[in-house]
Amino acid sequence: MSKSPVKLRSAEWFGTADKNGFMYRSWMKNQGIPDHEFQGKPVIGICNTWSELTPCNAHFRKLAEHVRRGIIEAGGFPVEFPVFSNGESNLRPTAMFTRNLASIDVEESIRGNPIDGVVLLVGCDKTTPALLMGAASVDVPAIAVSGGPMLNGKHQGRDIGSGTVVWQLSEQVKAGTITLHEFMSAEAGMSRSAGTCNTMGTASTMACMAEALGVTLPHNAAIPAVDSRRYVLAHMSGIRIVEMVREDLRLSKLLTRQAFENAIRTNAAIGGSTNAVIHLKAIAGRIGVELALDDWTTIGQGTPTLVDLMPSGRFLMEDFYYAGGLPAVLRRLGEAGRLPHPDALTANGQSLWDNVKDAPSYNPEVIRDWDTPLVPDGSIRVLRGNLAPRGAVLKPSAATARLLRHRGRAVVFENLDDYKARIADPDLDVSADSILVLKNCGPRGYPGMAEVGNMGLPPKLLAQGVTDMVRISDARMSGTAYGTVVLHVAPEARAGGPLAVVREGDWIELDCDTGRLHLEVSDAELADRLATWAAGQQADPADGSGYRKLYVEHVMQADEGCDFDFLVGRRGAGVPRHSH
Ligand code: FES
């Protein structure tokens, strides 16, 4: 017996021969849409984050055009719509500040419109989680298409990576080993094609996470933005979303607990960004999957980093694609028995394992063999202790091994302005064994949780040849950055976490083996300091109005994914009442 066809949401708008149907159809017809388009075709939204202010997504009109071709070929009715586009490179105070705002835009745009399924055009860091969060809260059939990474950067005859080279060269300028002119000349060579950052930064990581979660077609993560196969993938995704609507393959059938466990393991294997910890938690919260910070330890621990990409390693996303891309990595995990849930369903209707079990691999330098990994255990470390009662994270693949167990005296910066004012002071009382502590850069403190956790080292130490130090903050770190950097300390300083009361000269112990982050002061002394701190707090007038007020009042801490407390959960695709 054949299944009855899925009832389309869009029929609530276009499917009636009455006053309401007239109104919904008539205004759409001003775009030259013939009557037969409204006769039961699945209406597919193309949710577009195109913007010239989001350079990583500036090629998305072309991408959308190829998605549209696929939708039409499969018998769907494509409708493209814009949503807030938060580009990492331009947006202040941070793109993270508006991730949740964009997700609201996505959720309400989908639910309020005659949309049966949606293609999410994602690229720059925050656009991927924002669109997945918004779509997850509606829970319609959805497939993500990433914009793809830029071609390898080129400078003075060698490959340079987005972001990573900026950190490297700016430190060299400060250390006096290169000139300012040499530094500036790398600018044009770093970003020489359309696309997202070509390192395993947050955009590439989130594209890999989307593929591992099963919400994209295979190979979505790594095909370069300007490679014609990116546009083939967009076309095929357009075809597939129409089928997904007919199969009622909603996000909740893909975004299961099993899918998130696969993604966590994948993150370790690719040497992915710490930002994924926050974004996966937020996406899971929207779809109703329980995900704890400690899952990153229990599920990820012991997984080698196989992908030799900057910032942890040597190569770039273009090389990664030519070497086999994410399917080759997932196959390695599966063959080692380290893919937790090979049977997890993916957007093409096949299991994750079916998609990757025959995936070829072409370059063992870029995608290492299981026995010769880049890092033996690349899982993100979750740290806890009296300095981070609700946790903190560190990415060992980007850190210096000898600093993963370290005890040092704190050099404390109260905020980013304080850091900028004093870091270059030749009289700063700091040595290579000190621990740099930066406060008030968390979700509420900055606000927007700035990517400054990898704060630059004191120039006087750089000049001595020091290349890494332990750094601790409530900030995030760009996925393109590196160093022995403890991030996401929760609760943040602004919310009264113990980080707020660390003092100059305090001893701090970091032990990544045991996951310990300890401030060496007594419980009584710590309680005393916190009480004094709380008594001295005053409201910041800048938090008193506008979107910032909403943000500061409702953003949750890093261990909870920095979503707004009132946005957590799946509110479904119920059709709102009409107003005619
Ligand atoms: Fe957009 Fe890196 S700045 S992907």
From TrEMBL:
Gene3D superfamilies: IlvD/EDD C-terminal domain-like
Keyword terms of this UniProt record: Iron, Iron-sulfur, Lyase, Metal-binding
Family matches, as Pfam families: ILV_EDD_C, ILVD_EDD_N
SUPFAM superfamilies according to UniProt: IlvD/EDD N-terminal domain-like, LeuD/IlvD-like
Segments forming domain Dihydroxy-acid/6-phosphogluconate dehydratase N-terminal: 41-355
Alphabetized GO MF terms: lyase activity
InterPro entries: Dihydro-acid_dehy_C, DiOHA_6PGluconate_deHydtase_CS, ILV_EDD_C, ILV_EDD_N, IlvD/EDD_N, Sugar_Degrad_Dehydratases
Residue intervals of the Dihydroxy-acid/6-phosphogluconate dehydratase C-terminal domain: 365-562
E.C. numbers: 4.2.1.-
Signal sequence annotation: none
PANTHER family noted in UniProt: HYPOTHETICAL DIHYDROXY-ACID DEHYDRATASE (EUROFUNG)-RELATED, HYPOTHETICAL DIHYDROXYACID DEHYDRATASE (EUROFUNG)-RELATED
Similarity-based family: Belongs to the IlvD/Edd family.
Protein name from the UniProt record: IlvD/Edd family dehydratase
Native source organism of the sequence: Variovorax ginsengisoli
